[in-house]
Amino acid sequence: MTTVAVVGLGAMGSRIARRLLDAGHEVVVWNRTREQTAQLVDLGAIPADTPAEAARSADAVITMVSDSNALRDVTEGPTGIAAGAELSTTIIQMSTVGTEPISRLASILAPGTGLLDAPVLGSIAEAESGSLKIFVGGPPPLVERWTPMLSELGSPIHLGPLGAGSAAKLVANSTFFGVLGILGEALALARALGLPDDVAFDVLAATPLAAQAERRRPSLESGEYPARFSLSLARKDADLILAAAATAGADLRLARAALTWLEEAEGAGLGDLDYSAVLAHMLRGPIIS
User: Fold this and answer.
1) Going from the N-terminus, what domains does the chain have, and what CATH number goes with each?
2) Mind telling me the catalytic residues?
3) What is the DSSP string of 60-128?
4) Tens of pLDDT along 80-113?
């Protein structure tokens, strides 16, 4: 039986842990707040007092935390994962943190400790159903070893050496924010030119935005934006994209514009809603939840 530790039990981490329990793995769990572990412990997970203790018990340690600061908190120091990991342990970093924190994490692990970066594309529903897209970076033998376990969570795609997975996640996320910005501006233009929303949606159905317009229409019409991927996390990811672009010398003017909309929406108090609530901010529409 494989023992897998899951460190970080938010919306995604808790569901990943549940999938692994259902698949028959022994699962060790740690979260900053104990309340998050209770339900998983009731289902058979083993609680750990620190990330180091979780790592000490595991063949693989999955990290799923909110940002690079949280990743440092759970990996570094005397109670961090690096302090507890054995040479036989593999750390599988699944958070969206960009590429620099992956290099930092690699530098603090004992030589020989395995490390993969494997951020995911998908949200709560995909985590529950095991249909995440998993962008994996790391050495081929290590990827091959852990592909069966990752396949219980979704579809792993090996993209190259360590860091490639995190780079790919930034590329993927850049498209989401850009598309939402274009959709919001197209609807704003339609309204400014006197076209009713139903006519605007008919027009958009004939464009490359058709699928996104159809997907977002119910929220725009109802004013309800239950969080699948919070706007505050989307803004954080947009920051990561632009920081990575600046370091690499890529000119991302559209991504910068999309970030300004996310920043404004977060500043307007929409950070805990789904990131698609940026559309309501752009259109000054009603918001129910």
Assistant:
1) 3-160 (3.40.50.720), 167-283 (1.10.1040.10)
2) 169
3) EEEE--SSHHHHHHHHSSTTSHHHH--TT-EEEE-S---SHHHHHHHHHSPTT-EEEE--EE--HHHHH
4) 999 999 999 999 999 999 999 999 999 999 998 9
Centre a 10 Å sphere on the Cβ of residue 112 and count the other Cβ atoms it contains. Answer: 9
- Taking CA atoms, 196 is separated from 101, 180, 188, 277, in Å, by 47, 19, 11, 20
Phi, psi of 205 (to 5 degrees): -65, -20
pTM above 0.90, yes or no: yes
Strands 120-121 and 90-93: unpaired
The residues, ordered by sequence, that sit 6+ positions from 83 with a Cβ below 8 Å of its Cβ are 52, 55, 77
pLDDT in tens, 246-259: 999 999 999 999 99
Number of alpha carbons in the 13 Å side-chain half-sphere of residue 150: 29
142-176 pLDDT, tens digit per residue, is 999 999 999 999 999 999 999 999 999 999 999 99
CA distances from 5 to 33, 85, 176 (A): 16, 11, 30
